[in-house]
């Protein structure tokens, strides 16, 4: 369950359909409510992202100051106490603590995934135990569990389902069991749920229980999909296919590969155990492990995010942690009676996820240390036998600055590149959602005449990634907005400079300044207006036209300096005369649109990673065998982006890490 307060805002529907949608979600949420307690604790990644927002504990070094200006990133920052500052400093300055924190998060996540195997089997086993009782007339004991995941449903839907159906049903069931126990307490060691059900209604109850168990199993399966998707977004899991099953309801996803794996493993567990007691022991250990991890992470949140004294966090950890540790140790006693399964599975999954994340970090560091200079890019031209061909070249890279090594390799092997060159970085930020109007961070690479740009596309770990067609058209639209803004800003028509940096301009510095481009509909008459602050709610997506307003946020690389500018271009102002600046502006826009008509090429790196000489045996096994095996058997970047094969240019790269 996400801990971000803004998450519920994504459930916006029209007034006409709001109640219809809410009631439909309330019905669908029944499968989530009848589930397992552990899935409500898959806030591990939400907690981890919350900690990463307030402290520099992430292992991937691609954090930017511009990310902190996101409306979903901004948080209230109460004054930090000296003790909380010391805890933050210690945590930030020791990389070993970063690794330990990541392993703790991965362990909790893998335990939830492990419970995804056990819950469907144990819930169906529990339901059909009534059939065994009815057929054999023998008493059968059955280890019940219940959980809730709010990740796929709105708060109102959960409240309606729980208040009007789930809660009354539970009260009636437990009252009935209590009444039965009060009269049959002498046989309490043989009593299970179905024994307390009157024989006349046992078959209807059995049917309802089986249906509920089938629907309830979907909760943990959906939660597993959500966790895998979040892990993938944060670079902790190999790329898999994510299918968004609803165009209206955000967050409902399906992952075919994971679904098939869960099915096979569920069948294997059922056949292997054939005993609900062993399944219950395994599920209990997984649940308690997740609760223990969540308590540890929450204690860090209390210090780093809520800025409470460490003593408060320590009391919280000791109180809840001691209780959970007691239950966890009791579950460990059942290690040989089924509790070994989630431990074994978690160790395997943690290894896979950590190896993938470790190799991803090493690849990023390799790119960072081997990027080429801007002077090299600007020197490319006819004198070196390099030609510029029509079209747009999108060079995908993980770097947020600099020229990636795969582009230099591309030019070396094919001495030509496109007239419009865009270095695209698709980046995940530690927030659940990024508003569409704040998604594109655009800047120049070199002077305007070079026609080279950088675009950082930011997604939250719960965001739906755009398909390639809409991404291409929106990218061109954002570039056009940036070009207009840049020319007007450079020539003083829009003045956003402070008194202390009035000499700075966008064109005078090659990559020191990026702008967040978003558009809103506009019906005013003013040519432009400067606003010191614009509320994020006023920014919405819309196609930019000549009668539009463009919201721009300027980001300084040297510090957190934010300026928002709003300006409008209308037909009258464009027709007032062609100055030299306007001619150059129109020429650049013309080049952009002509390049779009000529076609777009997607330039992606096809990487092979090898451990460098002298590496330890463990590192060689992890990189040369483990990571490369996972890379060969997961979806490539071109498949994940759904790039048309005819538009794909792959550049082979060998990473020596």
TrEMBL record:
This is Potassium transporter 2. It is a multi-pass membrane protein. The chain crosses the membrane at residues 25-51, 99-128, 156-182, 203-228, 253-273, 285-304, 310-328, 340-359. GO terms for cellular component: plasma membrane. Residues 390-655 form the K+ potassium transporter C-terminal domain. Its main location: membrane. Belongs to the HAK/KUP transporter (TC 2.A.72.3) family. Residues 43-136, 143-378 form the K+ potassium transporter integral membrane domain. One of its GO terms (molecular function) is potassium ion transmembrane transporter activity. It is found in: Cell membrane. Pfam families: K_trans, K_trans_C. InterPro entries: K+_transporter, K_trans_C, K_trans_N. The lineage of its organism: Eukaryota, Viridiplantae, Streptophyta, Embryophyta, Tracheophyta.
């Amino acid at each position: 369950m996400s801990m971000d307060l803004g998450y519920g805002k994504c459930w916006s529907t029209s007034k006409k359909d709001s109640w219809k949608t809410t009631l439909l979600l309330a019905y669908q949420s029944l499968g989530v409510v009848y589930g397992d307690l552990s899935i409500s604790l898959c806030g591990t990644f939400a907690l981890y992202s919350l900690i990463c927002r307030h402290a520099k504990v992430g292992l991937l070094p691609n954090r930017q100051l511009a990310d902190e200006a996101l409306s979903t990133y901004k948080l209230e920052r109460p004054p930090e106490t000296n003790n909380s500052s010391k805890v933050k400093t210690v945590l930030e300055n020791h990389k070993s603590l970063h690794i330990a924190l990541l392993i703790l998060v991965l362990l909790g996540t893998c335990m939830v995934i492990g419970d995804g195997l056990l819950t469907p089997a144990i819930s169906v086993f529990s339901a059909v135990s009534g059939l065994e009782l009815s057929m054999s007339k023998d008493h059968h004991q059955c280890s019940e569990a219940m959980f809730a995941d709010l990740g796929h449903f709105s708060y109102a839907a959960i409240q309606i389902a729980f208040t009007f159906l789930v809660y009354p049903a539970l009260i009636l069931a437990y009252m009935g069991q209590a009444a039965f126990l009060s009269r049959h307490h002498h046989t309490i060691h043989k009593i299970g749920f179905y024994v307390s059900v009157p024989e006349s209604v046992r078959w209807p109850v059995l049917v309802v229980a089986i249906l509920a168990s089938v629907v309830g199993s979907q909760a943990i399966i959906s939660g597993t999909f959500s966790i895998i998707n979040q892990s993938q977004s944060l670079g902790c899991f190999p790329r898999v296919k994510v299918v968004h099953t609803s165009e209206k309801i955000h967050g409902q996803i399906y992952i075919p590969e994971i679904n098939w794996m869960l099915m096979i493993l569920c069948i294997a567990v059922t056949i292997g155990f054939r005993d609900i007691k062993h399944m219950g022991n395994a599920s209990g250990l997984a649940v308690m492990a997740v609760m223990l991890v969540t308590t540890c992470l929450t204690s860090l949140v209390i210090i780093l995010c809520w800025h409470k004294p460490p003593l408060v966090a320590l009391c919280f950890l000791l109180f809840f942690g001691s209780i959970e540790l007691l239950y966890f140790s009791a579950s460990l006693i059942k290690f040989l009676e089924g509790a070994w399964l989630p431990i074994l599975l978690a160790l395997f999954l943690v290894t896979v996820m950590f190896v993938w994340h470790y190799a991803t970090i090493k690849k990023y560091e390799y790119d960072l240390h081997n990027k080429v200079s801007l002077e090299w890019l600007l020197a490319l031209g006819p004198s070196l036998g390099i030609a510029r061909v029509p079209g747009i070249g999108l060079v995908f890279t993980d770097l947020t600055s600099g020229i990636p090594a795969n582009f230099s390799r591309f030019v070396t092997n094919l001495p030509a590149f496109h007239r419009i060159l865009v270095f695209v970085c698709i980046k995940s930020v530690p927030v659940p959602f990024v508003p569409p109007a704040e998604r594109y961070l655009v800047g120049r690479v070199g002077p305007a005449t070079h026609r080279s740009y950088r675009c950082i596309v930011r997604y939250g770990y719960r965001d739906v990634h755009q398909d390639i067609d809409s991404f291409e058209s929106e990218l061109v639209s954002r570039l056009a907005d940036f070009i207009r803004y840049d020319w007007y800003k450079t020539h003083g028509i829009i003045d956003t400079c402070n008194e202390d940096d009035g000499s700075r301009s966008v064109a005078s510095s090659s990559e020191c300044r990026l702008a967040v481009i978003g558009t809103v509909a506009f019906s005013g008459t003013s040519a432009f207006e400067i606003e010191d602050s614009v509320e994020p709610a006023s920014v919405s997506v819309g196609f930019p036209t000549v009668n539009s307003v463009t919201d721009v946020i300027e980001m300084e690389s040297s510090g957190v300096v934010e300026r928002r500018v709003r300006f409008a271009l209308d037909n009258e102002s464009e027709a007032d005369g062609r100055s030299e600046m306007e001619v150059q502006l129109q020429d650049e826009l013309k080049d952009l649109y002509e390049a779009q008509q000529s076609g777009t090429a997607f330039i992606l790196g096809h990487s092979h990673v090898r451990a460098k000489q002298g590496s330890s045996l463990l590192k060689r096994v992890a990189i040369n065998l483990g990571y490369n095996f996972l890379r060969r058997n997961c979806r490539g970047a071109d498949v994940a982006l759904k790039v048309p094969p005819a538009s794909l240019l792959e550049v082979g790269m060998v990473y020596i890490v």
